[in-house]
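Reference record:
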Amino acid sequence: MKQQQQQQQKLFLIATFIFFLSSPTFTDGAGILSRIFDRTITASGNNHLSSGNSSSKYLTRDALWFNQTLDHFSPYDHRQFRQRYYEFLDHFRAPDGPIFLKICGESECGGISNDYLAVLAKKFEAAVVSPEHRYYGKSSPFKSLTTENLRFLSSKQALFDLAVFRDYYQKSLNARFNRTAADNPWFVFGASYSGALSAWFRLKFPHLTCGSLASSGVVLAVYNFTEFDQQIGESAGPECKSVLQEITHLVEERLASNANELKSLFGALELKIDGDFMYFLADAAAIAFQYGNPDKLCTPLIEAKKAGEDLVNAYAIYVKEYYVKSFGANVETYNQQHLKNTAVNDDSADRLWWFQVCTEVAYFQVAPSNDSIRSSKVDTRYHLDLCKNVFGEGIYPDVDATNLYYGGTDIAGSKIVFSNGSQDPWRHASKQTSSPEMPSYIISCHNCGHGTDLRGCPQSPLVIEGDASNCSSPDAVHKVRQQIIEHIDLWLSQCRSSGRSSM
């Protein structure tokens, strides 16, 4: 055994030496996204983590590493990079218990968060493993994030990363327990973009997992995502929606007369492009519904309207006190000059996700032609100009190709659970109707937003173990969770009876 370990160490050193000779621009570990997509609770030091000691927020923050293939689609390019991952074994029924693969998405992955998956792991006596998404956090293949270097950043490459990791971890687990050719039952979990990856992984690699949970899984690439703004209006209700529309109108008037004074009022003077500024204001409102805090937005604005107060000032207070200070949004995230920064740093996720937006999925949150809440300045041209300005000529999202590859909401998979919160604007890019072996659930309540099944209420800041007691209808959450448990139990049982990790 010792001789075998020494041989493996020699091979690793040789491979590492060749790797660095062939690619001097690589690094083995360098070094969120409200505007772009998801505000996950996995990035270290985020403001939107719950209060309390950090040990309760994470199941583990102890990082592990392995060598990942850079380009899974080239028979000639054998370069690798160091990919970070985490494992949590406290509830694991060794050696043959299930393995829950929790996919980290479009932000730094600082550990395995203590959400409802912790409850599921305990119930099923499962190990939990979680690899960081390529390019994000410490798993950056390059020292510079130029457009050329970003060519290996895609959902397709990320899915192969998961398959390679799954193979690597299964072999390492077998070695740990002195087993040969054993295969534990695996189940994949993800929320938001990683929820889409979870569904797509089961679609593309059905032999590698017993099933998947796609929590708020946005499997449909959308070019003009007008339904996003429309859902904000529906979630807000008539009174709050009307106030938000009035604020947008007043802001546009002031923007035309004294832009600098207006932007200073919101602490956003750095946003020189008016479209960036209006996107920032639109996101500030959307986030309240997306993450289960609608009253923090609507209550003070409706009260200000009834009292005859300056609505723009009232909204500026909400933006600065809640969206920036409490929620943790950064104005710089909306600055296209910032998005052009190619350095690998703690803010790289902003540029990285926009690259995926501008090449694969779009999700352009444009203003509908009628009855819009957000400004008409946030239109298709704004998004296309951003993609061109930040990444150069020829960069645009081929949503047709993405949907052709994965199937969109007509995904032809099996043993995938889809779940969405009723107030979440992203649910319109998810699969909201059930089909054979792909059940879909809508959790309906006043503050049920993005990833409610895993995160509870509110969805941000983190609620320990995804506690649903603060949801306006806890029973609605519990009912869907029970159905999810039944699907996991059935599909894991079918794996075991077949003697394979999947069926």
